Amino acid sequence: MTMPLSIPVQRLAHGEGLPLPAAQTSGSAGMDLVAALPDAEPVTLAPRARAAVPTGLTLAIPEGFEGQVRPRSGLALKHGITVANAPGTIDADYRGEVKVILINLGEEPVTIRRGERIAQLVIAPVTRATLIPADTLDKTSRGSGGFGSTGR
């Protein structure tokens, strides 16, 4: 078992009183992010509408890691709510508020209220790569076969 990574987090004024992201079970990969909306100002997403929902948090993710913002499967299945740019990336050098771009792919409007769990945050290592120009690439059995080329 690896030691947990410590990440400094700052709660903004509109995030006061809300829980910090935390794993819900010992085997959870993600930590739930909650909506830091004013009580009197929920966000209603019409079908195919999207919104950047504030979390009231800023993070200091260490160099060599990223935060991945992913959809919650229950919201996706029950209401058609997902993260529009899934997974969203929080870079190690970003210090602004974490916001979640939600989109309603369902058929009915969905209202998001303060404190609702809206996405999950996964902290993952980043591998740096340098792309180098090449005149040719090695051959593979797939070659240039694109979408669906390997079957169903």
Automatic annotation (TrEMBL):
Q: Give, as in the UniProt entry, the pathway in which the protein acts.
A: Pyrimidine metabolism; dUMP biosynthesis; dUMP from dCTP (dUTP route): step 2/2
Cofactor(s) required for function per UniProt = Mg(2+)
Q: What is this protein called?
A: Deoxyuridine 5'-triphosphate nucleotidohydrolase
Summarizing the function annotation, the protein's role is:
This enzyme is involved in nucleotide metabolism: it produces dUMP, the immediate precursor of thymidine nucleotides and it decreases the intracellular concentration of dUTP so that uracil cannot be incorporated into DNA.
**This enzyme's EC code(s):** 3.6.1.23
Tell me what reaction this enzyme catalyses: dUTP + H2O = dUMP + diphosphate + H(+)
Classification via Pfam families: dUTPase
What gene is behind this protein? dut
InterPro entries linked to this entry: dUTPase, dUTPase-like, dUTPase-like_sf, dUTPase_trimeric
Please list the residue ranges annotated as the dUTPase-like domain: 19-151
Q: What is the lineage of its organism?
A: Bacteria, Pseudomonadati, Pseudomonadota, Alphaproteobacteria, Hyphomicrobiales
Keyword Magnesium in record: yes
Example GO biological process term?
Answer: dUMP biosynthetic process
Q: Which UniProt keywords apply?
A: Hydrolase, Magnesium, Metal-binding, Nucleotide metabolism
For this UniProt entry, which residues form the secretion signal? none
Q: Which domain of life is it from?
A: Bacteria
Provide the residue positions that the database annotates as binding substrate.
72-74, 85, 89-91
| Species this protein is from | Phreatobacter stygius
User: What family is this?
Assistant: Belongs to the dUTPase family.
Which Gene Ontology MF annotations are present?
dUTP diphosphatase activity; magnesium ion binding
